Fold:
Amino acid sequence: MSTTTKRASKAQTRTGATPVVILNSKGNPKRKFASIYQAATKTGVNSGSISKAVRGIVNTAGGFRWKLA
Structure:
C-alpha cells in the first residue's frame, strides 16, 4: 500500500469529525452536516474553504456562511 493510500484510509476512518452548519441570511442554522467532508460532498463547496470559513479566516465559502455545530 502506498503512502498516499495509507493517508487516505486514515482520513476516511477518523472519528474526530468536525460537525458544521450552513447559516441562513439571518444567521440561523439552515442545514447541519456531520463533518466538513460531508458538507463539501453534499454542497460541492471545497472542504478547505469551509474549514477557513468556520475558523473565521474568510466570511463565506461557496456563497454560504458557516459555523461549527
Remarks:
- Residues 17-68 form a domain with the Arc Repressor Mutant, subunit A fold (CATH 1.10.10.10).
- Residues 51 and 57 are 9 Å apart (CA to CA).
- Confidence is low (pLDDT under 50) at residues 8-13.
- Helices lie at 3-13, 36-43, 47-54.
